[in-house]
Amino acid sequence: xxxxxxxxxxxxxxxxxxxLSIAILVIVVAVPVLLIFANxxxxxxxxxxxxxxxNVLREPDTYQALLNSVIIASGTTIGSTTIGTFFAWLVTRxxxxxxxxxxxxxLVPFMLPSFIGALAWKMLLSPRAGYINRFFMDIFNLDExxxxxxxxxxxxxxxxxxxxxFVFIQVCGALERMDPTLEESARISGxxxxxxxxxxxxxxxxxxxxxxxxxxxLYSMAHFGTVAVLGIENGIYNIPTLIYERIHxxxxxxxxxxxxxxxxxxxxxxxxxxxxxxxxxxxxxHFQIIAGKSFRPMELKLRGLRIPLLVACCTYIxxxxxxxxxxxxxxxxLPTYGMPFTWENLSLxxxxxxxxxxxxxxxxxxxxVSLGLSAALITMFTGVMISYxxxxxxxxxxxxxxxxxxxxFSVPGSVIAxxxxxxxxxxxGINIYNTVWIILLAYIARYxxxxxxxxxxxxxxxxxxxxxxxxxxxxxxxxxxxxxVLPLVRPGMLAAFFLIFLPSLRELTVSIMLYAxxxxxxxxxxxxxxxxxxxxxxxxxxxxxxxxxxTGQSIINRFIARTTKG
Amino acid sequence: MRRIFLVVxxxxxxxxxxxxxxxxxxxxxxxSMKESLIGAIYKxxxxxxxxxxxxxxxxxxxxxxxxxxxxxxxxxxxxxxxWTSEVPDFINMKEEGLxxxxxxxxxxxxxxxxxxxxxxxxxxxxxxxxxxxxxALAKKAPAEWDDILQPPFKGAFGVANPxxxxxxxxxxxxxxxxxxxxxxxxxxxxxxxxxxxxxxxVDDTSSGELLGCIGVDYITIDKIQKGAxxxxxYPKEILVVPSPVAIIKGTDHLKAAQAFxxxxxxxxxxxxxxxxxxxxxxxxxxxxxxxxxxxxxEAVKRSIPIDYNALKTEKQTTIKKFTDMLxxx
Lengths: 566, 329
Hints:
By secondary structure, chain A is mostly helical. Chain A has helices at 7-41, 50-58, 60-93, 99-107, 114-125, 131-140, 152-163, 165-177, 180-188, 193-221, 225-230, 239-249, 257-284, 306-331, 349-357, 359-392, 398-410, 413-423, 436-460, 464-472, 477-505, 511-514, 522-531, 535-565. The longest helix of chain A has 35 residues, at 7-41.
């Protein structure tokens, strides 16, 4: 980019954009995170106090919660990685029947919010009343339940069901793009299947497997919903649920926020470590696996296992997707929880109630939709601006921005929630705690990472020469941006929009800490209704949420299919 | 591109303006009462006083207090009237001088459970807790508190989490006061469970996950009316939890707030309270048939007396001790 033609003006626009980008990231992300560290390590008198931090960590409850987060996240990561890799291999490298359909089905859990899954599994497998447990106990006359979902294993299994697509997508992508000539040449040279798998295939897809696994680790450590629904009953807390309970117990006063900030600091540090690992792995595994030509990779003949494996996949899908969804809709149709599913008992009353009569649920749906739209739009535009500075501009001070841009990737939702409470409840003269604005700010901070990722990817593909050509023809910086860059990155911006809008429709971890009487989101309404014992109403609302999410997703899929074709 | 920007800007402002449009000038009530109860009262009040508009926000008492705390920090409490079941909150607010003294005009007709009543807050409802049991699974109905310590309820009796529910905390603290910590130790020995909210233990009892629980009257009665197989009994010692109503000091709508409090304590509004399955604070109101107690006065007489100051100061330690005992730590 030449600075010589209209130096003054270029400098002006560039500096303004840079300044704005840094300001936004500092205000939205850095300040809350810094305040968390400040609150954790400095006491009320402003002295650095490591002693208190150690005391908080040594407290049995907090120590146990930390341990639980690690146990649950490790179990979930190992399980999801195994399942995700296996299914990915099955649908890309074997002659399994209906592979396309299977691949689409394995991606469905991506859409289902895991806390709704957890609610469904609670109804199916709670020790005495769970429908599956009762079924087996009645048939075999058992005294003990078939499976107790209120356990570490139960939590881990439910999280695996809804998180494995993270690995599945990554590994599918790697296997599909992998240059099959590598394997073929090994085969021609006389290597057996075992050797090829061990020496060629696994090393090539390992980076994808690991980066998917770390993503799951990151997500699961800071995940609120599943543990809140299934763990609290048996005293199993992880970090986010403990923070939630402490803050709830003290009615939002700041006494217990210290414990919260210490735990949140631990989360941030471990998340940063995970991200660092991921980058290291990705940069190390820099194999040229994308070969421009598309060969058909060799497919393993499953022979006699073809049908059994197909049946196994279908059973897996039926159990993890169809069964929980069905139970949510059915329970949502009961007048009160605990009644049998007979035709007389089922009705659409609850659905009518939440959509038309109940202010709380109507508010929640409205809030989630408008928060999602606003957060997605704002984040989409700021994201494209910030990515532009990071990817394209050559200005001083960019390094700061690169660092700040990495921050949203490593800050979990519950930490953001705690941070915005600290920052925006009057400390700097602005008090928006208990209003909808604080949730909006938190959403922007939380989803900025998605927008930066999608927009950077789109911007990398816009060659500098295009802007230079426009500038050489006399266009101003602003004109070049508006007429050349923005139209070219529009697909990236749209992707960012949807990547933010849909998850925010079902968001729970952040909004559960920030909601006020009129600012419940759908996730909060489902969770609190369930906690209040309105099981059937919360199930009905979960059903409505599922319909919203799935409709949204299919509109997007159709939309993306059309834009990529055109 | 400019058109897109314009559309986007409009969309954002539309979405957000919708969210904040709630806060128009109105008399504001913060309450932890159930939507159906507050909705019915709101409707009746509006028919009687069409000139006053009431905007109510309902949420758990903890949420409401958190909101009030931040509003205080910002300079002004938005609520004009507060109606929850957390008496300790009202005592705190009274001590901090946040409550407007107002003795309702029909006060003499009311049942008053507070000994040192001074008009800061007035009971507008008497919530009760009893033993809830699953009628399909329990062989014999429980009758006394001791029954929940017996083998039929082993591993299947629930109490709501006192850290999440103020009513649950109050019921535990009253049981400890009446029967001592031995009672809790015996509950632990019988493997009683800590659930989540006060409603959820009742739902779990209805589904058969639990055989019984300590349950709130109106929650249980609502589920029984919808067809749940539940029974609700009062042991000799009843847990009575008053729900006070108070006017916030410095309100701009004092007349409206006073009219609302007077209405809430009138026969008409108390009949709505009673029809939801809770005890009214008037003796001239017919009780819900599912409540097996002769009159509100009798319930108050049979209730375990509450030491509100102890309730306030011992909260953290009681919850911790109770949770540790039941979770076997």
